[in-house]
Amino acid sequence: MRQPLHYPWPDFDVDGAVAPAIAVRVDVSETGTEVAAHQHRKGQLVFALTEGVTCRVPSGLWMVPTHCAVWIPGGTEHSNIATANAKLFFVYIEAGAADLPARCCTISISPLLRELIVALSERSDTHDADALLARLLLAELPRMPVQQLYLPISSEPRLRRIADALAANPADRTGLSAWASRVALSESSLSRLVIKETGLSFGRWRQQLHLIVAIRELSNGATVQQVSAELGYESVAAFITMFKKALGKPPAKYLASVMHGDRT
C-alpha cells in the first residue's frame, strides 16, 4: 500500500516561496509513496537520485530512471508515484526563470547538475550562496539533452485500462486481438483508437513502454539479462536488437551517454 508523500517540513507552499528555484529532498519509506493529482503555478523538475519515480500527466506516463528527470511546466496537472526507498528531489522553478520546454519531457541530469540540485536542497535560507546555486542550476538545466522516455496515454478509459495493465506487467505479451476482446472493441477499432490517441501503433506503443522500463531498471543496476527476462524477450540478443534499433545505441552505451548528459 502506498503512503501519501510528506515534505520535510509542514505546510510547504510551493507557489508562496519567493525564489527563482527551490529544491526539496524527500526520502521515501519502505512502502513507497504517492502524490495525488495536483498542479501549481511553478514548474517542477522531478529527479530520483536512487530507485525511481513514475510521473503521470493527462497526456503521458514517465518512468524516471536515475540520471534523468521529468520536467513538468507550471499549471500542468500531474501525479507522482515513487518506489520504496527512493531518494527524490523536487525542484520548483518560477515561470521564465530558465529557457525550458513548454511541454513535459525527460531531461538528462549531468553530474554537475545533480550536485547543484543536492546542494540547493540542503539550503533553507536566502543567503547569496543560495542565489548563486540557483543561478548556476538555471543556467545548466536548459543545456541538458531531452530524452524520448515517455509513454503517450490518454483519458480514454479503455486505453487507460490497457496502459495500467502493461505498466503493472510489462512482460505481458497479450496481442491486439485479445486486448480488443477485453475492452469490447474489434481489433481494427482498437488499432485505430491507439493510433488516434497516442500517435503510435499498438506494437510501437508497447515497445515504448519496454524501453522506459528497461532504462529505469538498467539505471538501478539490473543486468541486460535480467531486464530482457523481465520484459519477456526470448533472448538477450532480441532485446539488445530492439533497444539499439529504437535508440541508436546498445543498452550500455546508451546508459553511459545519459549518465554524462551526452547530446550525441
TrEMBL record:
Matching Gene3D superfamilies: Homeodomain-like (1.10.10.60)
Organism: Bosea vaviloviae
A molecular function (GO) term: DNA-binding transcription factor activity
UniProt xrefs under SMART domains: HTH_ARAC (SM00342)
Superkingdom, natural source: Bacteria
Protein's name in the database: AraC family transcriptional regulator
CDD domains attached to this UniProt entry: cupin_NimR-like_N
HTH araC/xylS-type domain ranges (all copies): 160-257
Sorted UniProt keywords: DNA-binding, Repressor, Transcription, Transcription regulation
